[in-house]
């Protein structure tokens, strides 16, 4: 069977892009107003602040709109808008500042194993926390100093080095190790943590835990001084003999790799939304400039080469948006979450963000190279999503595997 035929057999896509479901469209409008009226005017300040500066007032305002509970079911005080709702919201926020988007995106990623587990005990203990008035953040603790991609590629698990360990002792586990580059770790109330059961080589015993971070043995490390995404803080988490009850295991012992892969498949659509937003933000600045700047007696937009660049930028953004919406819709309607569509959406959108931001700097010219115009910030931000939730190399492996797997059906 050809790969074309195999993909042609997938369910028809019925989402009308001109008319999102009413509840998602209404939420999109709310988030867009917040992003443009509140976040965008602060974007330069957020970018140039000290690495460990965190705008709690801004987060509090976004939190009040429900940005930390988009996917949480209504029975637990959430909005219940699924991955499509998350992805659309991420684009709107990222068009103003992707770091702000990631504060909420990382929180929702920390919730994902709990949602995925279907465990009513875990869900009733943790999910209602996000329905209160005061902001509660969460984080997802996977990456380590010596282990990144090896924790999300099953074939590489045996080669993972110095992975955080978990040891069973009666009705609890004891965790030891250090996680690195963890968004929200500085302030998160809890983390979804992946550790390797003692006695299993590499990461072949990977297991998922929900860990409260206010207990003895948890140390929050220094904040990383990042190139972009500076509105969200990334830091280390060190665990020294941290006790986690058995009921906080998600998916059973040795189930961590499957959960990690599943949450990556779900999250990649929303990260593609962030990259699309970064591209859109850069494009909007370039479009405004090219409509106002006069060279050779006419606006830049009337020059053929400029028009070609703007047209290509616009087409790429629209294509990236269609891909992430398609992927998000499939995530919301298929079990297990699909692998190909979210990986393809992120693979494409991440590249679009860099290409469009690069073109925007070129079009705006000298001002695009200056910090006060904001375009160079978007170019720096554009590289962020290429690192988290799957590098282009990891995504290429996932996509290619799906293509050849289709041939075997």
From TrEMBL:
Domain Acyl-CoA dehydrogenase/oxidase N-terminal, chain residue ranges per copy: 23-132
Q: Which residues are in the Acyl-CoA oxidase/dehydrogenase middle domain?
A: 139-242
What SUPFAM superfamilies does the record point to? Acyl-CoA dehydrogenase C-terminal domain-like, Acyl-CoA dehydrogenase NM domain-like
Which ranges carry the Acyl-CoA dehydrogenase/oxidase C-terminal domain?
A: 256-400
This chain belongs to the protein called: Alkylation response protein AidB-like acyl-CoA dehydrogenase
Q: Which family does it belong to?
A: Belongs to the acyl-CoA dehydrogenase family.
**Which species does the entry assign this protein to?**
Saccharothrix saharensis
Mention one GO molecular function.
acyl-CoA dehydrogenase activity
Q: Which domain of life is it from?
A: Bacteria
**PANTHER family listed in its UniProt record:** ACYL-COA DEHYDROGENASE, ISOVALERYL-COA DEHYDROGENASE, MITOCHONDRIAL-RELATED
């Amino acid at each position: 069977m050809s790969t074309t035929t195999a993909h042609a057999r997938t369910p028809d896509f019925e989402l009308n892009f001109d008319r999102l479901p009413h509840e998602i469209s209404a939420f999109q409008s709310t988030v867009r107003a917040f992003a443009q009226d509140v976040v965008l005017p602060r974007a330069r300040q957020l970018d140039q602040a000290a690495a460990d500066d965190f705008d709690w007032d801004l987060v509090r305002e976004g939190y009040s709109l429900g940005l930390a509970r988009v996917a949480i079911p209504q029975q637990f005080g959430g909005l219940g808008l699924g991955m499509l709702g998350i992805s659309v919201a991420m684009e709107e926020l990222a068009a103003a500042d992707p770091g702000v988007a990631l504060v909420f995106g990382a929180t929702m990623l920390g919730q994902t194993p709990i949602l995925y587990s279907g465990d009513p005990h875990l869900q009733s203990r943790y999910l209602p926390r996000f329905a209160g008035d005061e902001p509660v953040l969460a984080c997802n603790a996977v990456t380590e100093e010596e282990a990144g991609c090896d924790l999300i590629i099953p074939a590489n698990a045996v080669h993972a080095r110095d992975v955080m360990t978990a040891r069973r002792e009666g009705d609890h586990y004891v965790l030891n190790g250090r996680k690195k580059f963890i968004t929200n770790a500085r302030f998160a109330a809890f983390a979804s943590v992946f550790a390797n059961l003692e006695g299993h080589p590499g990461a072949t015993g990977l297991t998922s835990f929900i860990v409260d971070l206010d207990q003895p043995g948890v140390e929050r490390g220094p904040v990383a001084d990042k190139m972009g995404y500076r509105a969200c803080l990334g830091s280390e988490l060190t665990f020294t003999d941290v006790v986690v009850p058995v009921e906080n295991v998600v998916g059973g012992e040795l189930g961590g790799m499957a959960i990690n892969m599943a949450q990556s498949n779900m999250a990649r659509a929303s990260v593609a939304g962030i990259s699309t937003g970064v591209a859109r933000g850069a494009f909007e600045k370039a479009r405004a400039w090219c409509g106002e700047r006069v060279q050779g007696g006419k606006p830049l937009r009337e020059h053929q080469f400029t028009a070609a660049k703007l047209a290509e930028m616009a087409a790429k953004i629209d294509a990236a948006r269609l891909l992430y919406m398609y992927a998000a819709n499939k995530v919301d309607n298929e079990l297990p979450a699909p692998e190909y569509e979210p990986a393809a959406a992120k693979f494409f959108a991440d590249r679009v963000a860099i290409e469009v931001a690069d073109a925007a700097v070129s079009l705006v010219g000298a001002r695009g190279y200056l910090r006060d115009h904001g375009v160079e910030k978007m170019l720096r931000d554009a590289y962020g999503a290429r690192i988290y939730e799957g590098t282009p190399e990891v995504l290429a492996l996932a996509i290619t595997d799906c293509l050849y797997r289709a041939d075997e059906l």
